[in-house]
Amino acid sequence: MIDGSGRAAFPPAPTGLGALSATEIMAGYRRKAFTPRDVVDDTIAALKATDEACNAVVTPMYEQARAEADRLTKEMRAGDARGPLAGVPVTIKDLVFVAGVPAYAGSPMNTAFVPDADAAVVSALKASGAIITCKTTTCESGYKLTADSPVTGVTRNPWNPGRTSGGSSGGAAAAVAAGCGPIAIGTDGVGSIRVPSSFCGVFGFKPTFGLVPRSPGFSPPSWASLAHTGPITRTVADAALTLEIIAAYDLRDAASLPVSARRFDTDAGRLDGIRIGASADLGYAAVSPDVCAAFGKALAILDSWGAQVTMDGPGLDPGILEHTLKPIAFTEQAAAVATKTTADLASSEADYRNIVSAGRRYSGTDYIEASYRRGQARSAFVKLFERVDALVTPTVAVTAFEAGQIGVGKIDGREVDPHLGWSPFTWPINLAGLPAATLPCGFDRDGMPIGLQVIAPWLDEPTIFRIAAAFEQAQPWAKFWPRVALR
């Protein structure tokens, strides 16, 4: 995998233990090559360096992590350590509750809030033996696709700190990309796992809506019908392992799906028999030339591995952003702060206040009509998946833009909505509640990562993992490292 200029020169891999994959860390423990304390110390060093360069950490939990690592080290020496992720460092996005740790959610309104309960995903990770090292940055209430907030400032990209990390799980993706532990937990309402993972050159997975419970802690309850929780990792195997642990039925979450425990096969093999639909623009999107070129090369790889690739897509309404997503997303964002006054919102970002104001202007009828159009979009995907087993698109229409900007307003000469128009491939998938992943598929002419999005029918995560594992085998992206990584 090379960048758009044909260059293949990348920095060497970091040497710290925090840069290892979860499967490599677990194998090292079995060999007694190192201890959880060794791994956590190296991970904390990497987090401190990355935070200084990229601003990825909101709340360090370093002393708690060291204490837990010491406990697990003793258990491992005694042969008592248990759990599929015992001793593996994990970061948690600051929208997700960790009991006793502040959950600012990027909002000045939450600076005094400390939850007294773990989110279900955090409880599952703790039970697996994972060690939580910190909370990572997000934008205010997760409302936009960068991780910049009035609480933490601008989060930057480890490939080039002058560029954005993307968001809203930007700190999570930046930390994984820079070798600060193998697993991060992010959330995704309109692309907030996939956009930063694409921009930072890592693997991000948004499972089927409801597969991973959000209760009892997810702050705030914005994007109520859109938000998913999932893993960000450097490898497909690590994401599969994490999803096996955090996917569960939880009665406290009304959207939680009553499905039994699942196992995901990530052994790479040919894709013979898999029908893949491909769309470079979903029929309406403006896309940068570099992204289009990388997408074409990715399709050729899938074809060479035996997939039946055809140009096909769901045929969505070109007005889906204005007439479907915005009435739903903006209304749900406004509902999340319904009890807040103008004075309460005074310290929020102007763009955030504008979205809340727009959401308050939509009527109940507007929301119901948008929900009807959402059903039509869902039906379009149902029909598509009668013809194909999976759909691939670019993940984002552009690569990471200047840090501190909310987005871009023009792509290849075409004007786009600066908030959401440059990510036209992610939010339709949230409207449908489908599982989707982004995997690195190349670099632009400036050496910034480009992502390929893989989408499958509801609860068909195994097909995504099969395609991603094959692509990872063909193009092993994890060997490429950004310039900001502790070496």
UniProtKB/TrEMBL annotation:
Pfam families: Amidase. It comes from the Bacteria. GO terms for molecular function: catalytic activity. Residues 39-464 form the Amidase domain. InterPro entries: Amidase (IPR000120), Amidase_dom (IPR023631), AS_sf (IPR036928). Belongs to the amidase family. This is Amidase.
